[in-house]
From TrEMBL:
InterPro entries: DDH_dom, DHH_sf, DHHA1_dom, Oligoribo/pAp-PDE_c-di-AMP_PDE. This is DDH domain-containing protein. It comes from the Bacteria. Pfam families: DHH, DHHA1. It comes from Amoebophilus asiaticus (strain 5a2).
């Protein structure tokens, strides 16, 4: 199917009931791309609802349109199911496999709505009618920009939409540092800046708005919870539930921590292993050829990108650490 004419026919012909949903534990790309798309579609007179399966990080509470996000897990189950069941179109943003939206998966699968995926993750599942999917894209926000451009609608972009898309690209490229940060991406960002994006303001909001408490937590973690395995070019941070409690952490407060482990000279593989309720979540990052998405998929029920992936286990923190260390040791050849 030729994607753009198909979307054009669906979304520009007449006002529709549209649901935009994103992956659990939404990050700045999932939210920015979804809210940028939502604001664009509203300008085209559609009725748009944005559903996040779980809560978003506090440091993103300034995003234009964030107040309208329906958080499924926060007593919005019935509303979410109703909106999905009655939607004409569902956009799945920043994910392409349904297990990324937990209990919303079956509702999305069953609904008669046209399903449009906008994603850049490597793992995909065959459930959508239209796939706007490019694993080489830095961010779902990049794909939303390209969609608006391909529809010939860049005139609809305003400062708020541009800031939503900018923050997605900014964070998914780790401030334009990942290897997929091409001239093309910089051109898109340059175009977004033309719409008035306040770069300094947004970078301050995203990266330099720490609470003192969060900095103390960081100091504690780096002093007490960081393990470096130099023989395997690996470093990991393991966080206990008690640590999060002690420092009164909010949603999103551990976001980016894994990058401290990865920032150590010579480190190729980094992990953040975090106890969360009855499970253990793992965030993986790598530099170069070591593919963490396969690691996440094979051993931690997860997935993601080549250099950034995540997953979980139902084991204890200690058991998860043991498995991780064993895997690292078994992969010594690839890590060196
Ligand atoms: P993070 O470590 O920041 O949570 O996630 C890194 C990347 O891996 C993100 O692109 C995220 O969407 C993806 N990811 C994280 N957890 C999972 C998971 O459980 N399953 C899959 N398929 N992808 C994940
Ligand atoms: Mn993304």
């Amino acid at each position: 199917m030729d994607i753009i004419p198909a979307i054009e026919k669906e979304i520009l012909s007449q006002p529709k009931r549209i649901v935009i949903t994103m992956h659990t534990n939404p990050d700045a790309d999932a939210l920015g791309a979804s809210l940028g798309l939502a604001a664009f579609l509203k300008k085209k007179n559609h009725h748009v609802s944005v559903i996040a399966p779980t809560a978003y990080p506090e440091f993103l509470d300034w995003l234009p349109g964030i107040d309208e996000v329906i958080i499924y897990e926060k007593n919005n189950q019935q509303l979410s199911f109703e909106l999905i069941a009655s939607a004409d179109i569902i956009f799945c943003v920043d994910f392409a496999i349904l297990n990324r939206i937990n209990e919303l998966a079956s509702a999305v699968k069953q609904t008669k709505a046209t399903k449009i995926v906008i994603d850049h993750h490597l793992d995909t599942e065959d459930f959508a009618d239209v796939m706007l999917w490019n694993p080489k894209a830095t961010a779902a926000a990049e794909l939303v920009y390209e969609l608006i451009e391909a529809l010939g609608e860049t005139d609809c972009i305003d400062k708020s939409i541009a800031e939503c898309l900018y923050v997605g690209i900014l964070t998914d490229t780790v401030s334009f540092k990942t290897p997929n940060t091409t001239p093309h991406v910089h051109r898109i960002v340059a175009n977004l800046l033309e719409f008035g994006v306040e770069v300094a303001k947004i970078n301050k909001l995203v990266y330099d708005s720490n609470s003192l408490n969060k900095l103390k937590f960081l100091s504690f973690i780096l002093s007490n919870r960081l393990t470096v395995l130099p023989d395997y070019k690996t470093a990991y941070i393991a966080i206990k539930s008690a640590d999060a409690k002690q420092f009164n952490l909010n949603t999103g407060d551990t976001e980016g921590l894994v990058n401290y482990a990865l920032s150590i000279k010579g480190i190729v593989l980094a992990a953040l292993i975090k106890e969360k309720y009855d499970r253990v979540c793992i965030s993986l990052r790598s530099v170069g050829d070591f593919a963490v998405n396969t690691f996440a998929k094979e051993y931690f029920h997860g997935g993601g990108h080549k250099n950034a992936a995540g997953g979980m286990t139902n084991l204890s923190l200690e058991e998860t650490i043991n498995i991780f260390e064993t895997l690292v040791k078994n992969n010594q050849d690839l890590l060196n």
